[in-house]
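Hi there. Long-time user, first ticket. I'm pasting a complex I've been working with (about 226 residues overall). I'd like to know whether the download I got is complete or cut off, because the file seemed smaller than I expected. Thanks.
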Amino acid sequence: GAVVSQHPSWVICKSGTSVKIECRSLDFQATTMFWYRQFPKQSLMLMATSNEGSKATYEQGVEKDKFLINHASLTLSTLTVTSAHPEDSSFYICSAHAPTTNEQFFGPGTRLTVL
Amino acid sequence: GQQLNQSPQSMFIQEGEDVSMNCTSSSIFNTWLWYKQDPGEGPVLLIALYKAGELTSNGRLTAQFGITRKDSFLNISASIPSDVGIYFCAGRMDSSYKLIFGSGTRLLVRP
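Hi, the file is complete. Here it is re-exported in full:
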């Protein structure tokens, strides 16, 4: 089946620093990837749609200058949380759209803790 | 952001019992999906539904795409301890591939 990986699986950083999270589709090419944020005991909330070779599309209320998304290849999208603050602490999950099955496959998530 | 109404919020059942959960929306969806999420993990796709009225099974799981295209349900028969987790419905409206998630149903199974 389609496999999506994320790195790192968890990260702890100081307030004001930037953190980069990688999302890779391991056995398929994904022109479209998605980034979600999930707070404890809540559902997944879509942050942005990442399109290979073009700018990401952000959902309403998501600051594009704070959450930088780069989708430079068909198998890699990165999310950079710039100048992170404690309120950015969350579980960040990516997904990749698999063209052959027309479904999204999710990565294992990255737990971000900002001190 | 927009969310689907999913119920129940949580269930605590005895092993061997059947489970039913559902999602409703005020909007029409073209696709309904059901995912399971274990703690600290990403969601895993269980069942995908593409046509109104479609009834699909995956082992002990059965899901249906409502005729109105505004609802879906998931049944789990003869529950076992490894069914524990959070189940999410998700709907897709158009060809953009974007998913809208339900609020989740937390399932606990008593051995």
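A couple of notes from our side: The interface with chain B takes residues 4, 6, 32, 34, 42-46, 49, 59-61, 91, 93, 95, 97, 102-109, 111 of chain A (CB under 8 Å). The mean pLDDT of chain A is 94.
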